[in-house]
Amino acid sequence: MARPELYRDVARPLLFRLDAERAHRLTLGGLAAASAVVRPARRRPLPGLRVMGIGFPSRVGLAAGLDKDGVALRAWPLLGLGFVEVGTVTAVPQPGNPRPRVFRMPDGGALVNRMGFNNHGAQALAARLDRLTARGPLPVPLGISLGKSKVTPVDDAVDDYLFSFRLLQRHADYVAVNVTRRTRRGCARCRTPVLCAG
After folding, report:
1. Greater confidence, 101 or 187?
2. In the prediction, which pLDDT does 1 show?
């Protein structure tokens, strides 16, 4: 059975019998387990593909939101991705939005993600990255997306971001600061130059 048929005829029907978020978690776990036995070679950056001094082996990478806690970090380069961005991670662990929060739209071939900033926190991610890098560096650039903890007042947002940044900066090739949360009261103030400048 060819690989596309294996996915279409076996994996997809099984995953679609599950709740979308549960299927997401199982897929991340499966990717993590499979990638634990394979060690990819460091990939060379494409000629001329440098952004802010960082060389990228491919123009296509993983955006924040899919592997928030870096569970399957070693899998993404094996799938051909040229960078991985984990998170969004917050200083304080948090559950995210109430369930259900992931919705399939099969007719459109889409998935709606309303998870919010569910994650195990910056300290847990730092510990996972410590264990990962003990086995050697990730073969592609690693980005880390930082968000404000829900329990942190907006006036303390800068300190909240800095707490996560200080824990995680040694692992990141780049850091993205997520200040686009329009759904929370007070978050518009997080986007003001004064708060962003710290």
Report:
1. 101
2. 47
3-197, CATH topology level: TIM Barrel (3.20.20)
Compute the mean pLDDT over every residue in the chain, rounded to the nearest whole number.
85
> Are 83 and 142 contacting, i.e. CB atoms less than 8 angstroms apart?
yes
Percent of the chain residues topping a pLDDT of 90: 45
Q: State pLDDT tens for residues 130-150.
A: 998 898 888 899 999 999 999
Q: Beta strand pairing status for 84-89 and 110-113?
A: unpaired
Domain boundaries, the chain: 3-197
